[in-house]
Amino acid sequence: QTTIEVAGLRKRFGQTMALDGMSFTVEPGQVTGFVGPNGAGKSTTMRVILGLDSADEGTALVGGRPYKSLRAPLHHVGALLDAGALQPSRTARNHLLWLAHFQGLGATRVDEVIEQVGLRSAARRKAGGFSLGMRQRLGIAAALLGDPPVLMLDEPVNGLDPEGIVWMRGFLRSLAAQGRAVLVSSHLMSELEDTAGHLVVVGRGRVVADTSVADLIAAS
Ligand code: ADP
Ligand code: ADP
């Protein structure tokens, strides 16, 4: 089954055509790399999929439905859009407990996701003092709370140290190996070529190449 379907999205901000016919699909069981230069429309696409921005034209479906018509949407899609969006004065664990509360989830689930992202030793520290890499892990833990089959991560590798990058790549692959659909953006092809099985390359608000990595390697 296809889990994200974006078709013919157009979105204008004033004079800027942010999306100009963006179309692609994201399948379960592999990482789809969403690659293109800054300003290509990656974040806007993700925001439209999540219903945070509206498109002027086109459709964005998750599991066959618009995000806004999903019941329990956080159990369908997890997203990391802005690693800065945390509560600096709360501990990482309390931040997650607070988010879990609104999804009807408790401490057991919170401790599971803390373990999954490798934050156990930092879980009782204030998130305000976290490095970017730890913020990314915390953001991913939050996205995983509802155990969603679809994940969207905007530039999760950005600003990580080499050890963090290696961890993130392995972690993204493991999420896909669990059968999830994982859409990951980056402005650098090199960040995703070893991780993604499917590449959607974008520029100026539209797809310029859409290929499996196996086909790409066979052709080169
Ligand atoms: P990317 O994520 O690939 O870097 P974005 O989706 O953030 O690209 O941006 C696409 C284009 O739309 C850019 O030119 C950006 O400046 C513009 N843009 C995005 N959001 C807004 C906004 N809220 N207001 C005005 N312009 C925006
Ligand atoms: P990214 O590089 O991940 O696309 P940005 O820093 O471009 O992130 O955008 C961060 C936020 O600012 C987003 O909500 C985006 O919609 C908004 N934004 C981006 N470009 C503009 C712009 N030119 N004018 C107003 N808001 C913008």
From TrEMBL:
<comment type="similarity">
    <text>Belongs to the ABC transporter superfamily.</text>
</comment>
<feature type="domain" description="ABC transporter">
    <location>
        <begin position="4"/>
        <end position="220"/>
    </location>
</feature>
<protein>
    <submittedName>
        <fullName>ATP-binding cassette domain-containing protein</fullName>
    </submittedName>
</protein>
<dbReference type="GO" id="GO:0005524">
    <property type="term" value="F:ATP binding"/>
</dbReference>
<keyword id="KW-0813">Transport</keyword>
<keyword id="KW-0067">ATP-binding</keyword>
<keyword id="KW-0547">Nucleotide-binding</keyword>
